[in-house]
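FYI - complex with adenosine monophosphate, inputs then prediction.
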Amino acid sequence: MSEASIFTRIMSGEIPGDILFEDELCIVLRDIAPEAPSHLLVIPRQPLPGVQDATHEDKTLLGHLLVVAAQVARSSGIAEDGYRCVINAGSHGGQQVPHLHIHVLGGRQLHWPPG
Ligand code: AMP
């Protein structure tokens, strides 16, 4: 069996995390190394390694994660000025934690293209 990701360990209470919201399918965690004034991570309880592993069976879960991303963007006050949802996938995508998560970044002007 593969090792539990850091996010699974936070969800189980094994290690601490700044959890902003949770429901039966996901949690929202404040990123420990924020890249913007507001940097949240929407993380499914199901340890899908990344979006690159998603199948049609994950459609409902993936939709739910985006709806929660929009909801926490509104509740954290970044929705009015705009924000960015990012999913890093694999090595070239810059993914460090092999447990699917959506970054929700806002609170400052974000630039394009990303580095
Ligand atoms: P990624 O590079 O897309 O895999 O993003 C992983 C993110 O998880 C990074 O932005 C990290 O700062 C963040 N991170 C890693 N460990 C923790 C932790 N213990 N609590 C909150 N965020 C974390």
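Residues 6-106 form a domain with the HIT family, subunit A fold (CATH 3.30.428.10). The chain has a mean pLDDT of 97.
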